[in-house]
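Annex B. Sample input.
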Amino acid sequence: MPMRGQLAVCAALLAGALPALPAQPTPSVHGFRVVASFPHDAQAFTQGLVFHQGRLFESIGGYGHSALREVDLETGRVLRERRLPQHLFGEGLAVAGERLLQLTWRAGVGFIHALDDFAPAGEFRYEGEGWGLAAREGQLAMSDGTAFVRWLHPVTLAETKRVQVRDGAAPVKGLNELEFVRGRLFANVWPSNRIAIIDPATGIVTAWLDLSGILPVVFRRPETDVLNGIAYDRAADRLFVTGKRWPRLFEIELAPALR
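Annex B, continued. Sample output.
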């Protein structure tokens, strides 16, 4: 058999031997219903948001303005605050045991704070940028603005693996604030009004939450920035969202899928 024919046969055999990858279903798209609206510091550049055992914590960004806060949900009043050094830009936030873990943007350093009083409890290092952070049952997920979620060891905080987040075959870039909600990983996608709902085991986007229009025009100012901030109250099954320099924080429910 001529060489060209042999190559054609081999290619055909290989094609038959390799199973086709299953097509991923198109993610559903959900709207929202506002359950309640609460005051929020309109100067707070929200980078991380956590609700834990009745307490609301927030990581604020901006050079010279970055801080860790405990905030009263009902009034928006700052109950406790620890400022970061002026050369650091605060980012994602998560509760792990009795610790609050806070990322910074480009410094490659994260801070460990005591949960009860914000006392310094250590630091940890990571490569590249820090954006979002979320914790559940001994798992820590971290975003860095790309399409990848990093998984960190719950004790050492060392990176153990990375999973690419995809909508079908397309990588989803700009992953920002993270939160585990009912077994899924929710991720703000910068700079949009959408939240990706992700299967944490595979990185596949199973649904989208479209929050377009959630902040009424009357509340928008020139300094109002993008949607960012997701917190989940596991005890009461409540979901909260806000944005950078937004004057309101919202409790929401997902509406039935639009498609």
